[in-house]
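Task: sequence design from structure.
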């Protein structure tokens, strides 16, 4: 890979775990722009990256798995070729929004939709682009070069199959150059762009010699990513020089900066390290190099982002060929080697401002959100860290990141009064608020917390919802509790029908004293008796005819153990019962009684009767469905013939695989367990697998028989319908 730039110096390296397809640099914004494929964090986007801090400013949703990028010479528009949709997206950098999407059409039904292989903006015409088109269905992939004006294609295009996969404009002449990098022709095409479209003026072969290579324009020349320099000043392009002829180099990108007489190669091989080499721009001689032992994989797309050896490129995984990281070389080594420590920020409410403070006594501080100075003011959720610059302005290692959290204000709750708002003598009023999803707490005007309070004084009461960080909602509408000159009922006592500790499938019942017109349980229940379904404390208030509520009863502590899931049992063709239940404590039952020693997952049914399975877990039990099994009479014949019937158990239909497939048709009979004929269906001639319908049959045990055209039984099997 080449780069024209300043002298190589020590580099500080920033690596972003950002899968990327292409990267460009815009001097007007001093930012990198990266296209990201679908399926990853920040995927399907155009991401803006701060190269100084190695952070993502923002990502704009694009869709279609963005790929190739190109920018107009006024930097107003970025063109994005999509790899999952046959379109180009035009991004307006002034409005910071997608301005247009246009289709690339199709070369023919054989080639399918066109996609953008490479894009070049017409010099001086920011709304016009040349596109190297490709098919995703054929090889070679090239389907011609076309020019689009504000999304409308000019009629004249170059031919399909062999052409220009990589394209670049010469802004001095307006000529378009294209390189064929997918066949051994390796032709360099000179093309004219007119109002009618694009046409080929000449083809020069022998300048390039590697598949997958690409070209870029810089300073009146074309540069191959793998080492060739092409002089295009004359009528015929000629090879001006060669930086490298190393066949271990892999395809990469090129970017030019007019501030130096050197060219940079980032040597990308199969080795788990990269080599940055410096060559003289005019003599093509090696003048310096540096290894990056902690960077590996292929190098893909490289740009200069500010001169003086500042580079950015994409690494591509050697094994899976995924674009894994965006790497930024800042050309600076800091004298600071110890990372600072940033204290974790407290949570706050949306609209608040948190002040993050760097450690005192340190040099110039640069924050990842772009702020500079010892204090950063944060108003939104997101990861923040800082770096300290040394005397040369080089940034030291980053501090630990912190992530301030800003909660939205919860919606105002409302007060429920399960009973009356009348406060009677010796009584109590209960106020509650629904624990709907969102709030993590409630604060009453009394200063009490929780979803309910008990009131013994008249007055107005309201409640606020709380977020995780304690952000308060607006107060609810107040509930007005008033005094009533009536005596409250006496404090009730709860009677437990059963035990206070029980299994959930055998619950106890809690009863309040009878004879009252109203009841109010702390769970919200309004009847005289309730069945508890969760462990906890249960209390009740009783209400008299005047609407007065008593004090709550003494609470009853209920503990509920959960029973195991109900096991499923199945019957095989050879009279074996089995289950897939994972529980260790199992007991098979026959007609509701335990079968001695039958505690495994498999049981052979040797008696006619109703079989079921009991599972035990933590002292609680559950019982499976029941299967009625007949083990006499026709079963002996069934055991001898052993046809294949599946699935078994079945629901709407079942399939019978016959041991012999005769040439004539036959019939299938379905009988009840006691031998009664319930259904007769025709079997298809010469077909080994027969479909038997079970519509209208209730769940139970059945006998399925198959007879040939002469009435001879050729198959029989038991069937359980669920």
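Answer:
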């Amino acid at each position: 890979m080449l780069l024209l730039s300043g002298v190589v110096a020590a580099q500080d390296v920033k690596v972003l775990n950002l899968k990327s397809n292409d990267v460009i640099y815009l001097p007007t914004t001093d930012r990198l722009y990266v296209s990201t494929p679908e399926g990853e964090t920040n995927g399907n986007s155009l991401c803006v990256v701060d190269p100084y801090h190695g952070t993502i400013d923002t990502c704009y949703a694009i869709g279609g798995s963005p790929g190739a990028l190109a920018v107009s010479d006024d930097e107003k528009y970025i063109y994005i070729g999509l790899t999952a949709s046959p379109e180009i997206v035009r991004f307006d950098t002034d409005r910071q929004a997608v301005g247009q999407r246009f289709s690339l059409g199709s070369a023919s039904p054989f080639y399918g939709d066109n996609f953008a292989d490479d894009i070049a903006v017409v010099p001086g015409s920011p709304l016009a682009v040349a596109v190297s088109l490709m098919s995703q269905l054929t090889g070679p992939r090239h389907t011609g070069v076309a020019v689009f004006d504000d999304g409308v294609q000019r009629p004249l295009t170059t031919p399909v199959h062999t052409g220009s996969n990589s394209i670049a404009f010469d802004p001095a002449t307006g000529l378009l150059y294209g390189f064929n990098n997918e066949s051994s022709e390796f032709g360099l095409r000179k093309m004219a762009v007119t109002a009618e479209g694009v046409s080929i003026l000449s083809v020069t072969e022998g300048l390039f010699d590697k598949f997958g290579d690409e070209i870029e324009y810089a300073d009146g020349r074309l540069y191959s990513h793998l080492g060739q320099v092409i002089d295009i000043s004359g009528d015929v392009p000629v090879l001006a020089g060669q930086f490298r002829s190393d066949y271990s180099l892999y395809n990469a990108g090129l970017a030019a900066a007019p501030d130096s007489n050197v060219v940079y190669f980032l040597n990308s091989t199969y080795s788990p390290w990269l080599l940055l080499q410096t060559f003289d721009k005019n003599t093509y001689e090696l003048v310096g190099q540096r290894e990056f032992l902690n960077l590996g994989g292929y190098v893909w797309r490289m740009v200069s982002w500010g001169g003086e050896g500042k580079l950015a490129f994409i690494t591509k995984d050697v094994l899976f060929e995924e674009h894994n990281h965006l790497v930024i070389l800042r050309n600076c080594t800091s004298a600071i080697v110890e990372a600072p420590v940033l204290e974790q920020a407290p949570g706050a409410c949306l609209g608040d401002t948190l002040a993050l403070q760097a450690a005192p006594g340190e040099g110039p501080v640069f924050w990842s959100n772009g702020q500079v100075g010892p204090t950063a003011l944060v108003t939104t959720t997101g990861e923040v860290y800082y770096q300290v610059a040394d005397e040369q302005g080089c940034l030291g290692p980053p501090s630990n990141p912190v992530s301030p959290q800003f909660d939205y204000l919860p919606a105002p709750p409302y007060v429920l009064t399960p009973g009356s708002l009348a406060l009677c003598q010796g009584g109590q009023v209960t106020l509650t608020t629904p624990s709907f999803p969102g709030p993590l707490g409630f604060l009453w005007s009394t200063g009490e917390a929780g979803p309910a309070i008990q009131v013994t004084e008249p007055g107005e009461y309201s409640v606020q919802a709380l977020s995780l960080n304690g952000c308060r909602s607006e107060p609810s509408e107040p509930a007005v509790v008033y005094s009533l000159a009536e005596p409250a009922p006496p404090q009730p006592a709860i009677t437990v029908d059963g035990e206070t500790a029980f299994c959930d499938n055998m619950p106890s019942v809690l009863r309040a004293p009878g004879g009252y017109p109203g009841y109010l349980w702390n769970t919200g229940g309004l009847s005289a008796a309730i069945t508890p379904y969760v462990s906890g404390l249960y209390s009740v208030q009783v209400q008299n005819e005047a609407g007065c509520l008593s004090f709550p009863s003494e609470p009853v502590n209920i503990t509920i153990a959960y029973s195991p899931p109900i096991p499923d049992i199945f019957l095989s063709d050879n009279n074996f019962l089995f289950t897939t239940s994972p529980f260790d404590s199992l007991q098979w039952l026959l007609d509701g009684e335990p079968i001695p020693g039958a505690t495994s997952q498999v049981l052979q049914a040797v008696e006619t009767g109703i079989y079921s399975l009991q599972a035990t877990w933590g002292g609680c039990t559950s019982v499976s469905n029941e299967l009625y099994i007949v083990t006499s009479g026709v079963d002996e014949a069934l055991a001898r013939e052993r046809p294949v019937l599946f699935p078994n158990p079945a629901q709407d239909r079942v399939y019978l695989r016959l041991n012999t497939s005769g040439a004539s048709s036959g019939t299938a009979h379905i009988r009840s367990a006691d031998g009664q004929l319930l259904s007769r269906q025709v079997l298809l001639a010469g077909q080994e697998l027969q479909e038997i319908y079970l519509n209208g049959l209730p769940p139970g045990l059945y006998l399925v028989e198959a007879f040939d055209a002469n009435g001879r039984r050729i198959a029989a099997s038991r069937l359980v319908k669920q």
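The chain has a mean pLDDT of 84.
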